[in-house]
Amino acid sequence: MANIGGSLFTALPAGGSFTRTGINVESGGKSRWSGVFSGIFVIIIFLLIPQMFEKIPMSGLAAILIVLGLAIILKEWANIVLAWKSSKTYRYAMLLTFLAGVGFSIEYAVFAGVILSLLIYVLTAHKDIMLEELVLLKDGRYQEKSLPNNFPSNKATVIEVKGLDYFAVAYLLDEQLPSIKKTSNAVIIINLHDRNYLGTNVVVWMREYAQKLKGSDNLLMLAEVEKSVKKQLTRTGVLDEICVENIFMATSIVNDSINKSYEAANKWINLNK
Predict the structure, then answer these.
(1) Cross-strand bridge partners of residue 219
(2) pLDDT tens digits, one per residue of 107-143
(3) Does residue 150 contact residue 120 with C-beta atoms inside 8 Å?
(4) Under 8 Å CB-to-CB from 229, ≥6 apart: which residues?
(5) Which of the 8 DSSP states describes residue 152?
(6) What is d(CA 235, CA 237) in angstroms, rounded to the nearest whole number?
(7) pLDDT value at position 128?
(8) Tally of CB atoms within 10 A around 90
């Protein structure tokens, strides 16, 4: 990418070396200047004593790489053992990356590591989403409980959503939420605690779910909404669909926003009975 961009400004082509970077780091290099000085020293040596390089066998260069590799392995051994014990998924990913580096080249190992990391994230992140009901206790605290199969009519239900970081979880929300086929005059409150951003698919789902609830004489409310999320809902037009009076902003007081949304939900239910 650097060479493509540089070619537009008649720049000289540049190159990088994993080996040089590794040697610089192991030799005590602290900044990018170590690469600059490395290049300067190589130029000086080639100009002054090029015949000296003819006497360095390839086996010597290979020995440097072996020592460098062993030093890195010993330095990272604790992390290697930890990754091996943590899960089978990371164990296989580490083995495949190692085989790519040994059997092909370090570049292929880097690409394999990046691709495997992305695949692992995709496969694990979509399973992290979990929905629970927050039930208000007599002392004002909330207790987490499993969701019922159907949302009860004439009642406000607070939903705690855990795991909205992955872009595809929106498709799992409908699967885990209770049915509203036999539900009427109910309010569904979604707690967005500590959410500074919602994925595009989540925003689209939220608009469709608000419309779905309205069509069945129910209502959607959002609690613990951060300013950044409200701006996002405003820009996308979802705020107009949910209505601003059904959005309850997050405050510094724990559960204050949930309590206000719960009170507003009960008022709406009583007015529509």
Answers:
(1) 187
(2) 788 888 888 888 887 776 656 678 899 998 888 888 9
(3) no
(4) 192, 195, 196, 197, 198
(5) P
(6) 6
(7) 62
(8) 16
